[in-house]
Design a protein that fits this description.
- The protein is mainly α and 182 residues long.
- It has two domains: 70 residues, Tetracycline Repressor, domain 2 (Orthogonal Bundle); 110 residues.
- The protein has ten helices and no strands.
- Helix 1 packs across helix 6, helix 5 packs parallel to helix 9 and helix 5 packs antiparallel against helix 10.
Length: 182
């Protein structure tokens, strides 16, 4: 009877997630993960016969982590600031999620709908007394801007300055809401 594996599928995914988080997605190989977990490559290859299967599982884990991180609050400004802070604090994960070729290329509308499941938009529509379409339009503009800043920060092309970002996002958001100019 074969020996029962001592490293579980979940431990492999978590180990790979932590490896990507710490060192970046380019180091994720079966051999490197086995070294990280202190096991042979065999149990990893048994659970993930193709490296792409492991990367898909790690991507899902990273996406859940990212979503929980940014959606701690339903306030638009706080979500935007947390999104940018994530890129600063978790740059390897940010690049894995959005710059590794694994992102499915959704439109901004699809991405914003999926990311917030419509809940934030509903709450903001009521709070801002805007209709759903205007709220989504404003959110899309802000998302594109926030993602651009986050990408620059994650790639060390711009310094992370939370106060400057807060002011800029507040000003642009206020302008969008006041003028319905989206």
């Amino acid at each position: 009877m074969p020996k029962k594996p001592t490293t579980t599928r979940e431990e492999m995914i978590e180990g790979a997630f932590q490896l990507v988080r710490r060192e970046g997605f380019s180091v994720l190989t079966v051999r490197r993960l086995a070294q990280e977990l202190g096991c042979s490559t065999q149990p990893i290859m048994y659970q993930f016969p193709e490296l792409e299967m492991l990367k898909d599982a790690v991507y899902e884990r990273a996406d859940r982590f990212h979503t929980e991180y940014i959606l701690e609050d339903e306030d638009f400004l706080k979500i935007g600031l947390r999104y940018i802070r994530f890129a600063s604090e978790e740059s390897n994960l940010f690049r894995f999620l959005f710059q590794s070729g694994r992102f499915d290329g959704s439109s901004i509308r699809q991405l914003t709908h999926e990311a917030v499941d419509g809940l934030i938009v509903e709450a903001a529509s009521k709070e801002l007394e805007m209709d759903r379409k205007d709220t989504l339009d404003a959110f899309e503009v802000l998302f594109a801007m926030v993602h651009g800043y986050a990408s620059l920060i994650a790639n060390n092309a711009m310094e992370y300055d939370p106060e400057a970002l807060r002011k800029m996002l507040s000003d642009v958001g206020e302008s969008l809401m006041n003028n319905n100019n989206v």
